[in-house]
Amino acid sequence: MKAAVCHGTGDLRVEDHAEPTIERADDVIVEVQACGVCGTDLQILNSPPGHPATPGVILGHEFCGRVAAIGKDVRTGQRVVIDPDPKCGSCPYCRSGRPANCTNVIALGVFADGGLARYAQAPASSVYPIAETIPAAIATLIEPLACVVNGTNRAAPRPGESAVVFGAGTIGCLFAALLVAAGAAPVVVVEPSASRRLVAEAVGAHRVLSPDEFARGRAELLPLGAEVLVDAVGSLFGTAIEHAALGARIVLFGQNANALPAIKQYTITERSLNVYGSYITTYTFPTAIRLVEQGALPLAAIVSRVIGLGDVNEGLALLRSGEATKVVVTPR
User: What is the Cα–Cα distance from 189 to 172, expressed in whole angstroms?
Assistant: First the structure.
């Protein structure tokens, strides 16, 4: 089969690769219908890398498809979406109810082969049935949405609380849509890219501003600061602190191992701020699936482009430039 294989910094090649096979009793082989390209993929390929990955791995961790072969417990032909972070259920963190901290996760599409290929292997515990009616490109958003549900749950937004989301990539737009659905108001998105600002408006953000506009207008718009803040970029912790209200909750979601923002620790203590690091799921796939199946969130505008596997590097360029919010690959 053809697959998008990471050979190191900036080197993603579409090449021939052996098809995955059933190796364990709980293996599932999924024929991939669509796979989203994520900011994590960009970080893996950046120079220097902003996220680690296994050399020679097939990238892609936001994918949906149809079950082609099974070890057990899953019906062949079932349409599914995959949690790419299989939790072991037996480490100290899993056993204490903190599966997002599982020490035995081997992430698909990062440390084990993922979904930028015609077929992918996953454990049965990571495979969730989804409705036939969900378009494949929208189904790829379930994985990042499940991660965002986890982050939003940690922030625990209450109706009427103000929120600011920094960044209007896929994650920022999903946070904005979910915060609006939770009753937060106003929900403000700060994004330098004009095209991505339009997407943030389409998912329901109450105000969408460039960084300069936000800096000039924040005192009038949010005179006490925001009560919930999300860094969906991975380098704006200091900025989030600057605009936080007393007792605010800050969710750090975006990841960039090379970012070293200046942080004034005194301000966190003096203003009684709550800081949450959050990036994968805590059994939040069922909630994300229900939200998508019920049409509870306006997600269609997030998908900017659907391309073939052979054009995956073009898709990466679109994401890096800010011209696209989400690029989805159909590998067949």
Answer: 8
